[in-house]
Amino acid sequence: SAINFLERLCLTWMFFFMMCVAERTYKQVGLKLFSHITSARKARKYEIPHFRLKKVENIKIWLSLRSYLKRRGPQRSVDVVVSSVFLLALSIAFICCAQVLKGHKTFLSAAYNWEFLMWEAALLLFLLRLASLGSETNKKYSNISILLTEQINLYLKMEKKPNKKEQLSLVNNVLKLSTKLLK
Fold it and tell me: In 142-164, where does DSSP find H-type helix?
């Protein structure tokens, strides 16, 4: 029974460690780094590439990167972990329901049922944390304040450099279309 306890303890630790690493990766890459690529100060701090949205090519890159991170970034690896956690929680819930239907008066007298309930509570807490992180990430990806700030900067540049007005107005039109696309 001691070996069985140690095996369960090690497997539990590995499983929750994997969930914590997935959550940390999701937070770091999905929430922080994406919003820092258009800020010079934050990009320098995190040692990531920086570019302003003052050229059509940069806007294309920004939209492509946004799309790529939304589809394949840290969400891909986290999706696998979240799916497995959800399926495990669902399986444990079915087992607990079957145990309750089998004998509801003796359900809490078995130690393994207590263990199932603890696992279920821990998994549901983790799923709630990831759901709130997903909500924050969706807010970040649908935020258009970066584009509006860049539009204001372009208007100011048009006034300072009238000889580049045609090129800057093209970029401004692309920014307007991008804003509409994100809305």
Answer: 145-160
| Encoded amino acid at 139, one letter | K
Q: Both ends of the chain: CA-CA distance in Å?
A: 59
Burial class (CB in 10 A: 0-12, 13-18, 19+), 147: buried
Confidence of residue 93 (pLDDT cuts 50, 70, 90): very high
Reported pTM: 0.61
Task: State the number of CA atoms in the 13 A half-sphere of 173 facing the CB.
Answer: 6
Q: What is the pLDDT of residues 42-62, one digit of tens each?
A: 777 877 777 676 777 777 777
Question: What Å distances lie between residue 59 and 107, 111, 124, 182, CA to CA?
Answer: 59, 58, 39, 13
Rounded Cα–Cα distance for residues 107 and 69 (Å): 45
Cα–Cα distance, 51 to 64 (Å, whole number): 14
